[in-house]
């Protein structure tokens, strides 16, 4: 398990709660209960956003069953550390600070163009990485051109798309039901396939009330639709997931 990843939601470095549990010598279930308690307290103050500390996620165990976990930001790690006493608190603080600082250095190095690197070996290595990425992007752009033209058209509309339409548009071998399951697994939709508010606020998804007749009764039900920004957002997540699976395989 990698120590740090970049959160899709917070766009910053986060630690998996399973890794944090190992670092502080707690069971993962115990740590998740603690975090649930922190979030419950923070929710009493509307000015506090718990997502800046703990981002709810899920993972799939070897049995295929899904369990709760959290992506923990640096501020979240600080909160966990403050609740520890003695040596445990000191050791955990030292570990997570070192991990986050190393990641920050790595990000700076990754974002530095090759021509700005003075070390000739590192400069050559970075240039090779840049050229590999350029070739990959050229190939992807050629493949994605028809879809990009579609996205440009969609971006100028206020249209809403059903999940079935999105699955067809993405054309990535995933149908409507699998797409719903994927978005639930990523913590974007709840168990009723309704979007969490942060994704509605971001302009990705919209929950719409529809009506139908059942005998003499007017039945109201809610459907999730995807906005233009949401299609591209989902595509990026699917592509990233595919790349990760290819790396694992």
What does this protein structure show overall?
GO terms for molecular function: DNA binding. This is Phage regulatory protein, Rha family. InterPro entries: Ant_C (IPR005039), Phage_regulatory_Rha (IPR014054). Pfam families: ANT, Phage_pRha. It comes from Mitsuokella multacida DSM 20544. The chain is of the alpha+beta class. The chain folds into three domains: 4-111, no CATH class; 115-156; 159-248, no CATH class. It is 55% helix and 16% strand. The protein contains nine helices and six strands; from the N terminus they run E-E-H-H-E-E-H-H-H-H-H-H-E-E-H. The chain has helices spanning 17-24, 28-42, 74-82, 86-111, 120-155, 163-170, 176-185, 197-201, 228-248, and strands at 4-6, 13-16, 54-60, 66-72, 205-214, 217-226. It has a four-stranded antiparallel sheet. A two-stranded antiparallel sheet has the order 5-6. Strand 1 (4-6) and strand 2 (13-16) form a beta hairpin. It is flat. The model has no long low-confidence stretch (mean pLDDT 80).
């Amino acid at each position: 398990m990698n120590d740090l990843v970049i959160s899709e939601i917070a766009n910053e470095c986060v630690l998996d709660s399973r890794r944090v549990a190992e670092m502080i010598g707690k069971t993962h279930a115990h740590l998740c209960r603690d975090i649930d308690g922190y979030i419950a307290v923070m929710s009493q103050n509307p000015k506090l956003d718990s997502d800046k500390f703990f981002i709810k996620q899920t993972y799939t165990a070897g049995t295929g069953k899904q369990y709760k976990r959290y992506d923990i930001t640096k501020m979240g790690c600080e909160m966990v550390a403050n609740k520890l006493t003695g040596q445990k608190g000191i050791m955990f603080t030292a570990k997570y600070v070192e991990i986050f600082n190393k990641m920050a250095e790595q990000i700076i190095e990754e974002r530095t163009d090759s021509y700005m690197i003075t070390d000739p070996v590192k400069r050559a290595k970075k240039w090779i990485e840049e050229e590999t990425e350029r070739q990959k992007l050229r190939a992807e752009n050629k493949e994605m051109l028809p879809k990009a033209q579609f996205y440009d058209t969609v971006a100028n509309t206020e249209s809403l798309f059903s999940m079935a339409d999105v699955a067809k548009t993405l054309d990535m071998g995933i149908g409507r039901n699998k797409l719903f399951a994927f978005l639930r697994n990523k913590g974007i939709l709840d168990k009723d396939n309704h979007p969490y508010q942060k994704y509605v606020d971001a302009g990705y998804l919209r929950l719409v009330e529809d009506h139908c007749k059942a005998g003499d009764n007017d039945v109201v039900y809610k459907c999730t639709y995807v906005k233009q920004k949401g299609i591209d957002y989902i595509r990026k997540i699917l592509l990233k997931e595919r790349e990760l699976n290819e790396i694992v395989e």
